[in-house]
Amino acid sequence: xxxxxxxxxxxxxxxxxxxxxxxxxxxxxxxxxxxxxxxxxxxxxxxxxxxxxxxxxxxxxxxxxxxxxxxxxxxxxxxxxxxxxxxxxxxxxxxxxxxxxxxxxxxxxxxxxxxxxxxxxxxxxxxxxxxxxxxxxxxxxxxxxxxxxxxxxxxxxxxxxxxxxxxxx
Length: 169
Description:
By secondary structure, the protein is of the alpha+beta class.
């Protein structure tokens, strides 16, 4: 049986949810990662991914200007990095350097991969959609990678900064 409730009470039932990281190069040449809770696959042919970024985020303008980005699926071992990527602004912080994140150059776009991620996807911006206080970006995947090690994905497990590594399904 269902009962009527508030949006806030109902939406927290979505946890655990995946965490992703988008990385785009800003006008100063700095690679700027942002942690994402709202990301998904949208197409097989061509392969496409989408994610949502808040209107107030520095990454919004960076992604629009770069027109390309990496989507990384972080491993459980990257919890501290992902927390930093989601709580600091690239306006005034080199988040990759501060986190000590290991990166390697992307092959087909001007960005970097997270070396310790479970997977990385190089994407070219295919479109965007304004949705209230966020923008959904859609990218066409032009190159994909998986980590040679079998790593657990990082997930948020509830409201606030609670994360856990859950095994791959």
